[in-house]
Amino acid sequence: MGSTVNQSPEREEFAKPESRFKSLLKRMIRNKSSLIGACILIFFLLIAAFAPFLMTHDPNSTDVLNDFQGPSSENWFGTDHNGRDIFSRIIYGTHLTLYVGTVSVAVGAVFGIVLGLLAGYYGRILDSIIMRVADVLLAFPGILLALAIVSALGPSLNNVIIALAIYNIPVFARITRGSVLEVKDVEYIQAVRALGAKDAKILFQHLLPNVSSPIIVQASLQVATSILSAAGLSFLGLGVQPPTPEWGAMLNSGRSYMWDNPHLTLFPGIALVLVVLGFNMLGDGLRDALDPRSKK
Amino acid sequence: MHIFIIRRLLQLIPVIIGVTLVAFLIIQLIPGDAAQVMAGEAASEEQLEQVRENLGLNEPLYVQYGLFLADLAQFDLGESVRTGQPVMELVAPRFWITLELAFWGLVVAVSVGLFLGILAANKQNSFRDFGTMAAAVIGLSMPNFWLGLMLMYVFANQLGWLPTSGWGDWQQIFLPAITMGTAGAAIIARMTRSAMLEVIGEDYVRTARAKGVKERFVIYKHALRNALIPVVTVIGLQFGYFLSGAVLTESVFSINGLGRLVVDAIAQRDFPVVQGTVIVLALTFVFVNFVVDVLYRVLNKRIELN
């Protein structure tokens, strides 16, 4: 037992936690979709981080004499109905979009994962209660639930995040529970249990890492959905309020002047498509990379 | 089969009750005095009392919910705080408009989605496959309200081919239907492609080919038929998303459906109308999912055999 001869080098490598991350990274890079998605997202992260240096104008300074200017060397994406520089407003709005999308998913995921772990591991009544509640929340199609919640709480950035987080909880609860059911009876988990490990340790240290793949994939796709929903709510006037340069709100205020000034709605829309595309491609690519069937 | 349908119907009961409870609780989420929010800042104490009386806000919560359910059972969704009109009267005519809109969106999604999915699966890993799937992921990433605005600008404003807004004429169907259907078409195309590829690898398809059955026949008769089974589920789900997508599409194209109704009601803080619309949309979605489940069951005889 104690002899080191039996321990093959592969086995040792397998035990290292970072090797798993490394192999994921390798597979991600080999997968074109996730690579392109990651590049798009890094691009927007850099824009958000260095926004103060990238903005050519103050995003909120109005210049009525200079309204509705088309794209030019002075205003790259033109100016809006108040003469504000659209390029600078899009740059400034980047962090809002990323923030709403990631925070609402992170909060929803934390609650959803815990509930899903509990439901899947303990089963019985707890499982029934949690999953029936999830069924009810999932019975509201698309942004309807978020719309209803924001309508009551009132329009604001934080309320949009709360509403979207609640919308995300059942999605993660369901996917976590499903994965837990698949792995909870494998020998390895049974062995840990037989050794007398506490439930909390089994849940978070042993089960969670084993069900993380589908959750990671879902998180990326869910950020895409949440960004679209948040922009939709702002477009309806229920999200971030003007004059804050949030992309959905910019589309909403721009649409009244769109006939003669299409650039008011063109550029914020393209920015939205690109960010959402980044998360979708990353998620798609991760799914292929993490899917054991597609491993070569 | 009957047992399956009955069991599935019974499962609907807690979901339906839950949906009404969530919709009921919307008013409880309003920060501060709900009556004040609905009646407005300038409302007198009498008016506030009137609103509370009408909505039963003075009763304990469980009594309120009981009354809410009792009304609901008689298809009574309450009255608008603004106009005093029964919510049912506001919802019913608009419900058909939204349903019609969702139907046309589905027509676009299914026809375009199936066509592109088959096209891509036919030549796996070809340029055509790659191009179709790239288009699908872009279609999936587009906010439908923005797509609607762009379509409107190009086809209504610049080219003048189609009317900008409204509902009723057949020309007014195209732009909203494409707006609604694009994301769905993308999802269905991806689903069809992967389902087809899975089926094409199966033995019976290979046998059919080996027998010398014409390629087109193999694709449509053998492969597509079986590939369609999982696609049906996606189509059903899409219909549900169209119901909520209608909120944005109707706002873009000024269509007087449920989506416009709920957005206007939110702006006017008319919560009985918001609740009523949300309930109708959610229950329709629940019903559609039920139908899809049953349909899936009928189509997939393999499940039944097991």
TrEMBL record, chain A:
GO terms for biological process: transmembrane transport. It holds the Pfam family OppC_N. It comes from the Bacteria. It is a multi-pass membrane protein. The keyword Transmembrane helix applies. One of its GO terms (cellular component) is plasma membrane. Its main location: membrane. The chain crosses the membrane at residues 35-55, 98-122, 129-150, 264-286. It is found in: Cell membrane. Coiled coil: none annotated. Residues 94-283 form the ABC transmembrane type-1 domain. Keywords: Cell membrane, Membrane, Transmembrane, Transmembrane helix, Transport. CDD domains: TM_PBP2. Belongs to the binding-protein-dependent transport system permease family. OppBC subfamily. This is Peptide/nickel transport system permease protein. It comes from Natribacillus halophilus.
TrEMBL record, chain B:
It is a multi-pass membrane protein. One of its GO terms (biological process) is transmembrane transport. It is found in: Cell membrane. Keywords: Cell membrane, Membrane, Transmembrane, Transmembrane helix, Transport. One of its GO terms (cellular component) is plasma membrane. InterPro entries: BPD_transp_1_N, MetI-like, MetI-like_sf. It holds the Pfam family BPD_transp_1_N. Residues 95-296 form the ABC transmembrane type-1 domain. The chain crosses the membrane at residues 12-30, 101-121, 133-155, 170-189, 227-253, 273-296. Its main location: membrane. Belongs to the binding-protein-dependent transport system permease family. This is Peptide/nickel transport system permease protein.
